[in-house]
Structures are given as structure tokens and as C-alpha cells.
Amino acid sequence: MNDSFVTSTPLSDGVRQALETSLRGAQELLPQDEWVKKLVRAETTGQPLRIKLGLDPTAPDIHIGHTVVLNKMRQLQDLGHQVIFLIGDFTSLIGDPSGRNSTRPPLTPEQIKLNAETYYQQASLVLDPARTEIRYNSEWCEPLGASGMIQLAAKYTVARMMERDDFHKRFHSGQSISVHEFLYPLMQGYDSVALKSDLELGGTDQKFNLLMGRHLQEEYGQEPQCVLTMPLLVGLDGVDKMSKSKNNYIGITEEANSMFAKVLSISDTLMWDWYTLLSFKSLADIAALKAEVAAGRNPKEAKVMLAKEITARFHSVAAADAAEQDFINRSKGGVPDEIPEVSLSGAPLGIGALLKQANLAPSTSEANRLIDGGGVRVDGSVVSDRGLKVAAGTYVVQVGKRKFARVALS
Q1: What predicted TM-score, i.e. pTM, was given to this entire model?
Q2: Motif span ('HIGH' region) (predicted)?
Q3: Domain coordinates in residue numbering, the chain
């Protein structure tokens, strides 16, 4: 922060709290002194700030990695500011080149419409829908037309555009860059002009696009927005950012028992980053809990609290309690109350084929790997023989700690 502004301007407790909330878990707040001035003005005038988050509906589902920025929106919403959830139905037609080493194939209007229908419904599990302004950027992008697009493109130079890291790398490695990709950051920046945004949120990979909004607002005679970037949430593996392609994610519409168990599977170290970015507990409460663990409290107790909080947010408190009990039952070797029932034929059936056909393993070779690792049980007994032939009957088959099926084999 520009210390001269802070020291020369006494800040109220409300502004200091809002600044602390803004900075919690954030990667960067740019420019921080301008944000403080906006907060002071909002408190003085009673006029809430306009806080924007844009998401392109490139997939039908949101995972909890996406909720890092949604959580920040909710925190600022709870301070009384106006949050705008912007669905990029127009920009999805272009395709965001951020972090890409190749041209992103644009989605069809039909795919975008289908995905957009679920986005806001899922985001409303974090945001308060009664206090959220929902917009689609086709509202102002479509009317621009060809002449408006040319006028917009005139407000930024190719040289500046090529300073962008992914474009720079692709150009110098001889990889193609399509002209339409230059339009994406321009259109995202124009969203900020249309919405008169005071603050735009995004992941660290969106910094160039977010700063474009500041530039274009100045070009159009507006006060430029501030930019708040949030870190990308590390996934269940503790290595890579949460991603469906890495299979290290938790979907926010995932079944409660699975969600609870997946949170408990993260490392004790990663847990504290998740607390900062995903929990609604105060930083003081999290610090106190961390001190208790450092002093000898079992870290699993802290992880259970986090798992219950996250599960309750996307389901209910009752579902979170039930998921905890289900996890306890499974850890003791118990069978959950409700498990899938599968009917198979072909007895006697090889155990590998049975696991594959019951959707407990993606392939026979993976089934064999699970057997070798001691991760397969039939009626509570560990299976160690790959060549086991299962006779006709009904069995409870378990893979790992969380996969069960009641298999009726004929």
C-alpha cells in the first residue's frame, strides 16, 4: 500500500476491516492506495462500490477452485458492496487465450447457453442471489457491431498486446496467434467500461485482462477500476492447481459424502491454504486453530471442521453431519447405509472384470493394480488373488475407502 496515504489519512475501523477483508488470501491488489480511497469514499457517501467478476461458461460445472474468487465476492458483498456476476456469453465465442500455448477453440452458441444456465445457479451457492446483479456481456458487446469493434481496437497497440506473456512466448516459438485472440482482452476490458466497475476480481492468470479494464476505462473517461487477483487453488494432489483434467478437484455439486471425504484427504500443510481461501472463518479464528494444532491438537480435528464447513455450504449442516458419520463408519470398515446396487451376469466372473463392470475400476488392468495394493474387499475380506473367480451370489464389494457396490451376480 502507498503508506503516505495511510499515514496522512486516518482510516476508520470500517475501512480497515474492508481492506483486511480485501487482502485476505489475495495475490495482488492493484493499486492498493486507490482501493483505500474508494473504500473511504464509499463509507463517506454511503454509495456501495461496484465489484465485478466475469466467468466464461466454458464448462457446465464449477469446482471449489472456482469458488476462491466467489468467496472473495461474498466477503465484499457482506460488507455492503454491489457485486456483479458477469457471464461471458459473448467472450466465450472468442475463447480466452490466457495461459494457452495454442488457439482455444471457440464454443458454439448452443454450448454457451447450456453451460450458462447452470453457472449462476451454482455460483448462488456462495453468493447471496438476492444481492447479486447478474449480467451477460452480450448485452453491450453485440450492439457494438463492426464499427464499434474497430473503434475499440484502436484504443490499444499491437506492441502492448505482444507484451502479454502467453502471446510473447507463442510468437517467439513460432506458434500461431489468431487475430481474434487480440479481441478477447479488449472485450473483457470493455465489460468494465459498460459496468462502471470499481474493482474486478480474477485468478492470477487474468492479470493482463484485468489491467486492460483499467486502461479502457481511462480511455472512456471513467475512474479506473482496481484489480484484485486471487491465487489458483492447489488441488487434492497438493501439487497442481485444481483442475478437472488433473482429476484433483471437488465439484460443488458433488455428493456430500464424497465432498467431505475428499477434503479430509488433503495434506495437513495444504489444509491451512484451503482455510484461508475457502473458509468463512475469520483470520483470527484460523490463526488460533493453527496455534492449537502447533501446540499438539490433532490436525485431523481441524480438517474435519473444514470438511464440514465446505460440505454444509454446498449441501446442508445435516448432510455434513451425515457425511462425517459415513466417513467414520467407512474408516472402521463399516458399510454405508446407501450404496449402489449392480446386477451382473456371467458367474463365475473374474474379480478384475467384476470390478470393471460394476464401475469400481476404469479397466481390468487398473483393477489388478488395486488388488495388488490390497485395496479391494469382498464382504469385508481383502482380495489378494488376481485370478479369483466370483461365484453367483450377492456381495458387498469395496475399493479403497470410499467406493462400494452391492453386486448381485448371476
Answers
A1: 0.73
A2: 57-66
A3: 3-230, 257-331, 341-409
Q: How far apart are CA 38 and CA 40, in angstroms?
A: 5
Binding-site residue ranges for ATP: 244
Question: Residues of 304-313 as b/e, b for ≥16 C-beta within 10 angstroms?
Answer: bebbbbbbbb
pLDDT of the residue at 332 = 67
Show binding-site residues.
244
Q: Are 61 and 253 in contact (CB under 8 A)?
A: yes
pLDDT in tens, 142-177: 999 999 888 988 888 777 878 777 777 878 888 887
What CA–CA distances, in Å, run from 68 to 125, 204, 231, 340?
13, 12, 8, 33
Q: Is the pLDDT of residue 216 over 70?
A: yes
- Tell me the per-residue pLDDT of 319-346, one tens digit each, with 9 for 90 and over: 999 999 888 877 766 677 678 888 999 8
Which of 75, 101, 64, 396 minimizes the C-alpha distance to 235? 64
CA distance between the termini of the chain? 70
Which CATH superfamily, name and number, covers 3-230? HUPs (3.40.50.620)
Residues near 368 by beta carbon (within 8 Å), at least 6 away in sequence: 352, 386
> How does DSSP assign 85-103, residue by residue?
EEE-TTGGGT---TT-SSP
Contact of 35 with 19, CB cutoff 8 Å: yes
Share of the chain above pLDDT 70, in %: 93
CA distance 232 to 242: 8
The CATH number of the domain covering residues in 341-409: 3.10.290.10
Q: Which helix (H) or strand (E) holds 201?
A: strand 199-203
Which helix H or strand E contains 320, and what residues bound it? helix 317-331
